[in-house]
Structure of ATP-dependent metalloprotease FtsH:
Amino acid sequence: MDGFEKNEGVILVAATNFPENLDEALRRPGRFDRIVPVRLPDVSDCVKIFEYCLDKLPSRSADIDCEQLARLTVGLSPASLSMIVKHAGLIARKQGVSMVCAEHLREAIKVVRIGDVSVAEKALDTDEVRRVGVHEAGHGIVAALLGAGVLEELTVLPRGGALGMALITKPQDKLLYRRSDLEKELMVLLGGRIAELLMFGEASSGAAQDLQEASRISLEMVSRLSFGSQGNLCSLAALPRENAGRQLDGVIEPANGLLNEVNERCVDLLSGINRFCAMLQPR
């Protein structure tokens, strides 16, 4: 930045997750003028990172499947993957064992991704536990029926802010998403709420986070990807940031229409499965 020889051998590097927010003056020639995008690791990258980190452990069992661990952690940074392995070692030591096994790593993944098991479980009564179980089963069953993911684990133990969890992994990495792919994601998100409606006649506040994420995806589909039923080709991403928010009224209605359309398909999917209702009946 200061010429050819004054501080030769010194390299100045900066990192940000929001390059679009940088002052243009910082990116002028002679300053931070070379941009090197660093993406998050995909499944194959995660496998190699886990193998590297696991090799540093004093002892590990033979039941550890790095490919399964990679599927469970796609979207996490290398630092998070390293933290998972370290936390698995802590879990093993707390249990009084020296060898890290697959179960320790699975627990560490859940802690990093969602949070520790919460004492809130003591406040749940039997009916609430059953409702949470039905809700999470709805997510898992819809994912399995649509081929939208693999249900790795389902639990009603509260973690972080969640009262239960359906741990679903994607069958493969994707760089491009079709409308049908995103509609399946919406159906999986809505599956928990619909399962509650079918079993109990009404939904609960447990679907709040699912609705928020489904709304985010549907707004993206309508406002940027032209995946709405109206087929509008104009993308709000082309507008200046200060003006984009003013156009939201025009996309909320079609986004809600898309959600209602997908919701009805998900209702038909679950209500048409007799085994679904029979499986969840109390015994």
